[in-house]
Amino acid sequence: MDKYFDTDILLVEDSPDDAELTIRALKKNNLANKLVHVSDGEEALDYLFCRGKFSLRTIGKGPRLILLDLKLPKVDGLEVLREVKGNLLTASTPVVVLTSSKEERDIVDSYKLGVNSYIVKPVDFRQFVDAVKDLGMYWLVLNESPYK
After folding, report:
1. Nearest to 91 by CA among 99, 78, 100, 82
2. Residue 119 β-bridge partners
3. What are the boundaries of each domain within the chain?
4. N or C end: fewer C-beta atoms under 10 angstroms in the chain?
5. Contact partners, residue 100, CB within 8 Å, separation at least 6
6. Contacts of 108 (CB under 8 A, 6+ apart)
7. Is the pTM of this model over 0.85?
8. Which ranges of 9-124 would DSSP assign to H, the alpha helix?
9. Omega before 73 cis (within 30°)?
């Protein structure tokens, strides 16, 4: 349970392959030391709002960054984004949508709900690794966060 208390990145990804690639890319760049991976939107909300198996966490204590897929089981990514940005305790947490969806509606809706960045997952492995490295470096190293 200790790993749930001090988190830099919450990875919300239902594809085991995409999650593994993302984690590997972050680890390769020393950005995955404090990462929690959940595989559906309901679990993400439980983590963020300290419910269920995450009830011992303190709401408002990180993560410093949420990497969010949109096409998720149980609760979709747009609903997760809506709840995160609609709650004063989590609204300032940066959310980066990392998805395979190029649908204009998803992009528009994500920005209307307050997403900080929308990235379409590159198909090429090297480009994917570079994209994850760049976003991790920006949001965890360069960006000034209120959660330091």
Report:
1. 82
2. 98
3. 2-136
4. C
5. 71, 120, 121
6. none
7. yes
8. 16-28, 41-48, 77-85, 104-112
9. no
Question: Which of 2-11, 14-23, 31-40, 71-80 has the least mean pLDDT?
Answer: 2-11
In whole angstroms, give the CA distance from residue 29 to residue 147.
21
Residue 75: its pLDDT value, please? 96
CA 117 – CA 141 distance, rounded (Å): 16
Question: Is the preceding omega at residue 63 within 30 degrees of 0, hence cis?
Answer: yes
Cβ of 22: how many Cβ atoms within 10 Å?
Answer: 27
As a whole number of angstroms, the distance between CA 113 and CA 82 comes to: 6
Structure-token pair, residue 39? 């595989």
How sure is the predictor about 145, in pLDDT bands with cuts at 50, 70 and 90? low
**Vertex 116 angle, CA 55 and 137, to 5°:** 85
- Class of residue 124 by CB neighbours under 10 A (exposed 0-12, middle 13-18, buried 19+): exposed
Query: What homologous superfamily is domain 2-136 in, according to CATH?
Result: Response regulator (3.40.50.2300)
pLDDT, one tens digit per residue, over 72-102 is 999 999 999 999 999 998 999 999 999 888 8
